[in-house]
Amino acid sequence: GLRIHEYLYFQVLSPGDIRYIFTATLAKDFGGVFNTRYDQIHLVPADPPEACGELNNGVFIQDQIALVERGGCSFLSKTRVIQEHGGRAVIIADNAYDNDSFYIEMIQDSTRRTADIPALFLLGRDGYMIRRSLEQHGLPWAIISIPVNVTSIPTYEMMQPPWTFW
Fold it and tell me: Which SUPFAM superfamilies match (predicted)?
């Protein structure tokens, strides 16, 4: 059936200045699903950010989750690069840093390739703010919890990014 914006949530635990619950959408027709909940796993920004080829920091992505920027190649190509580096999932942030409300549907490219790891789309503003915080603190990665079940969290306790409308 047709899936329209299946949301998945994750929480940044560190650095503390972006300790928010973020909303992402799953790729429409490729990638895996989360069979495990990761209470503390590294969210590692890919170097180079677009992750269209060999990564300079691929060793840090092994068994972690990669933060990738949209552009340069297909969503599936990015997912496969992260999978080949041993990543458990990829979060692809929009390259429009002012995008704080428009989710893009990530679909299969024209190749017959597949990917087994989960691929998520993140709003550009959220991706930018996470990367900016890491740069300001001189940190190589964030620590996140993913996926987060938001149905058990009272609305008034949900720490949502102040720049996003919910």
Answer: PA domain (SSF52025)
